[in-house]
Design goal:
With 147 residues, the protein is mainly beta. It folds into two domains: 52 residues, no CATH class; 83 residues, Sandwich (Immunoglobulin-like). The chain is 0% helix and 44% strand. It has no helices and 13 strands. A four-stranded antiparallel beta sheet has the order 2-1-4-5, with no helix packed on it. It has a four-stranded antiparallel beta sheet with strand order 10-9-12-13, with no helix packed on it. Strands 7-8-11 form a three-stranded antiparallel beta sheet, with no helix packed on it.
């Protein structure tokens, strides 16, 4: 059976489309409907509805909530320098970097011990459930001063 198809995106008018249909979608909620048309031009009265879905194109924003004071004095190598952070989007994961190291998976509450005296830099970025990455990274600079 050779059929043609008409598609409707976001409740717009039906228009001829191909199978499979591809197109670019903007940020936000979307719906898609399709109906078949047979050789005689009869339109299927049963319109196939796709479940609504959301396209997320906006990256999350990361905020450091708890961080070491600057400057910090603590002579113990076992002292924990702790960071807590959040994202504007739920279910985000995080990547952290200390002193220019490669970013690696981390969780809020990340801590570091055994840091030497001198300047330090902590950076964190969120990655939301859609894979959008916070390109602005939250950052904190501080210095450990030996008493």
């Amino acid at each position: 059976m050779d059929s043609t198809y008409e598609c409707s995106l976001d409740k717009g008018p039906f228009a001829s489309c191909t199978n499979p249909w591809t197109g670019s979608l903007g940020h936000g909620k979307h719906t898609f409907q399709v109906r078949a048309i047979d050789r005689a031009g009869n339109k299927d009265k049963t319109v196939a509805n796709a479940k609504p879905w959301t396209v997320d194109l906006i990256p999350p924003d990361t905020t450091i909530k708890v961080k070491p004071a600057n400057p910090t004095t603590n002579p113990k190598a076992t002292f924990k320098y702790r960071f807590t952070f959040t994202s504007t989007e739920p279910r985000s994961t995080f990547q952290c970097s200390l002193d220019g190291a490669e970013f690696a998976l981390c969780k809020s509450g990340q801590s570091y011990t055994g840091l030497s005296a001198g300047p330090h830099n902590f950076r964190v970025k969120a990655i939301d459930a859609a894979g959008n990455i916070d390109l602005t990274t939250a950052s904190h600079d501080w210095e450990i001063i030996q008493p």
